[in-house]
Specification:
It is a lipid-anchor; GPI-anchor. Its cofactor is Mg(2+); Zn(2+). It comes from Sinocyclocheilus rhinocerous. The protein is of the alpha/beta class and about 450 residues long. It folds into three domains: about 40-125 and about 255-320 and about 380-420, Alkaline Phosphatase, subunit A; about 150-250, no CATH class; about 325-370, no CATH class. It contains eleven helices and 15 strands. It has helices spanning about 5-15, 20-35, 55-70, 105-110, 180-190, 200-205, 235-245, 260-265, 270-290, 400-410, 445-449, and strands spanning about 45-50, 85-90, 150-155, 195, 210-215, 255-260, 295-300, 305, 310, 340-345, 370, 375-380, 380-385, 395-400, 435-440. The strands form three sheets. It has a ten-stranded mixed β-sheet with strand order 4-5-3-15-6-1-7-13-2-14, sandwiched between helices. It is globular, with a radius of gyration of 23 Å.
């Protein structure tokens, strides 16, 4: 049931919003903003790509409301940081050979500018998954492949020999069979480089004295934000802040790629995990905006694919995102507003389903229509939010492979070094892509490895 505070908030909003003038004022303000918009035609000094793994439109909407409700509001009127980006497009996420996309082929599209077959990474569609002989000669590179890399995320075990005991969990060891400590190899190849595996050492890193930073905070995937130990692991927002403070020392510009693990919560059929990840993802976007300038930094927020997550049913204003509909289904039982088309939440036994109640349990499984051990990706388009230099290039409905082309053009890097865009006054010129710095923050690091 709604608390007295929530009811009071709802009452205030309903009273104010019942007057037509409320909406006239909002409409005029939005129209004024639209009429004042002018495209930024300068060259982008910096590029930031935020990739909400599995962040479909329904996830964005539910996360927006959840964010507001976490702040004590009704939620629907809340605004995400990504909502404030002035330019918006839709991305068609299908793979060359499959209607429903996967994370590997979509990564090839939004990083390399080429659509690929399902289950292939860094390969054109000419390369067939089951025929290794077709791989050679069909490799494709990221448009930003010449940038310099460092990494924050999980995946410690993949960097150490299998006899090396994990520093945090004594029951874990490395998984490498070749006896190679890749962290040591990496550190020896860089100047002013640091490796950290816990929050204390991460916080102690002085950005002014560090050019390369590798932070691996879990043996495999990073923990969900709901389960993260803040004394041991930094948040996504904290990692983004550290990355930008290191990267912005490069007068030639930088490229920052940030990925979240919304996807994992949806696959598990646990909407609370997915949506709280999305809220933290948006916090990171907001912090990045505070640390950079829209005048010289192109920021793009998108998703690789959607999920079969739906958010609807009958509910009053301010109803908890994970709550139940106020009406009953035809079987006389309640149902949650958040549901999955398939997945582990299938609960029909002997032709009937259990009655649903509102729950705050983190592990709660939303009901699913089709029984699967893991919920699937969706096939519909996802959003692209953009702001900064040349952000107006993101418009209409585009192939997902268009994203890196537009970003590369905005920064005048290969294959668009002849873009003829001028730098914003006050920023130094970008000599060549070789001077571009790259930082990658991968929350579901183990999946990529």
């Amino acid at each position: 049931m709604a608390t007295q505070q929530t009811l009071l908030i709802i009452g205030i909003f309903v009273l104010e919003e019942q007057h037509p003038n409320f909406w006239y004022v909002k409409g005029k303000e939005a129209l004024h903003t639209s009429l004042s918009m002018k495209p930024n035609l300068h060259r982008a000094k910096n590029l930031i790509l935020f990739l909400g793994d599995g962040m479909g439109i329904s996830t964005v909407t539910a996360a927006r409301i959840m964010k507001g409700q976490m702040e004590g509001k009704t939620g629907e009127e809340s605004v995400l940081a990504m909502d404030t980006f002035p330019h918006l497009a839709l991305s068609k996420t299908y793979n060359v050979d499959q209607q429903m996309p996967d994370s590997a082929a979509t990564a090839t599209a939004y990083h390399c500018g080429v659509k690929a077959n399902y289950g292939t990474l860094g390969l054109s569609a000419a390369a067939r998954r089951k025929d290794c002989s077709s791989v050679k000669g069909n490799e494709v590179k990221s448009i930003l492949h010449q940038a310099k890399m460092v990494i924050l995320g999980g995946g410690r075990q993949y960097m150490f020999p299998n006899e090396t005991v994990d520093p945090e969990y004594s029951t874990f060891t490395g998984s490498r069979q070749d006896k190679t400590n890749l962290v040591d190899v990496w550190l020896r190849s860089k100047n002013n480089a640091k490796y950290v595996w816990n929050k204390k050492d991460f916080d102690a890193v002085k950005e002014g004295n560090t050019d390369y930073l590798m932070g691996l905070f879990e043996p495999k995937d990073t923990r969900y934000e709901l389960e993260r130990d803040p004394s041991m692991d930094p948040s996504l927002t904290e990692m983004v802040e550290k990355a930008i403070k290191i990267l912005r020392k490069n007068s030639k510009g930088f490229y920052l790629f940030v990925e979240d693990k919304i996807d994992h919560g949806h696959h598990a059929g646990q909407a609370k995990y997915a949506l709280t990840e999305a809220v933290e993802f948006d916090r990171a976007i907001a912090r990045a905006a505070e640390l950079t300038s829209e005048l010289d930094t192109l920021s793009v927020v998108t998703a690789d694919h959607s999920h079969v997550f739906s958010f609807g049913g009958y509910s009053y204003r301010g109803n908890p995102v994970l709550g139940v509909s106020y009406s009953k289904a035809e079987d006389g039982k309640s149902f949650t507003n958040a549901l999955y088309g398939n997945g582990p939440g299938y609960q029909i036994a002997n032709g009937t389903r259990p009655d649903m109640n509102a729950t705050s349990s983190d592990e709660y499984l939303q009901q699913a229509a089709v029984p699967l051990d893991s919920e699937t990706h969706g096939s519909e388009d996802v959003a692209i939010f953009a702001k900064g230099p040349m952000a107006h290039l993101f418009h209409g409905v585009q192939e997902q492979s268009y994203i890196p082309h537009a970003m590369a053009y905005a920064a005048c890097i290969e294959p668009y070094t002849d873009c003829q865009l001028e730098n914003y006054v006050g920023t130094e010129s970008i000599q060549t892509p070789l001077n571009f710095s790259l930082f990658v923050i991968l929350q579901p690091f183990a999946k990529i490895i």
